[in-house]
Structure formats: structure tokens, C-alpha cells
């Protein structure tokens, strides 16, 4: 999200490829500060990374995102 605004899904997307791994930095409850998290996706749960002028979008995939992070 950029300044709290999600990419507009109505704008056509250009697929960039399959998402194999994702690394992000955040502070979750109990971390005591910023922590780098890395999530590797298995062959069954690969999402497509796509782009439009409003941002990057992840399409599909066999996982879910909760307040705890990426699960699945």
C-alpha cells in the first residue's frame, strides 16, 4: 500500500511472473522492533505478480494473509 491506498483492480494488469519468494520488513506484536520476514512459496501456491500504473498486485496463490502474516 502506498500511503494507505491499494492498487486499483479495475485498471488492466501486466503480469510480471510467478511469485517464488517474498521478503518484507515489519513489526508484529512481540517482535520488539522491525524484523525481516521471508516467505518461500511452494509449487502449488504460486501467485502471479502483476503491475499497473496504480501499483503491484498479487493474483491468486494458495495462501492467505492474516494479522500474523502470510499463512499457507
Give the helix level as a range of percent: under 10%
Q: How many structural domains?
A: 1
Q: What can be said about the biggest beta sheet?
A: 3 strands, antiparallel
Q: Would you identify the regions where 5 or more consecutive residues have pLDDT less than 50?
A: none
As a percent range, the share of strand residues is over 45%
Average of the residue pLDDT scores = 84
Computed structural class: mainly beta
Taken from the alpha-carbon principal axes, the silhouette is globular
Radius of gyration (CA) equals 14 Å
Lateral strand order in the biggest sheet: 1-4-5
- Give the number of helices: 0
Number of strands: 7
Task: Explain what this protein looks like in three dimensions.
The structure is a single chain. Helix content is 0%, strand content 49%. It is mostly beta strands. It has one domain. The strands form three sheets. The chain has a three-stranded antiparallel β-sheet, with no helix packed on it. It is globular, with a radius of gyration of 14 Å. The model has no long low-confidence stretch (mean pLDDT 84).
Strand and helix map with partners:
Layout (H helix, E strand, L loop, with lengths): L13 E6 L1 E6 L8 E6 L6 E6 L2 E5 L4 E3 L2 E3 L1
Antiparallel strand pairs: 1-4, 2-3, 4-5, 6-7
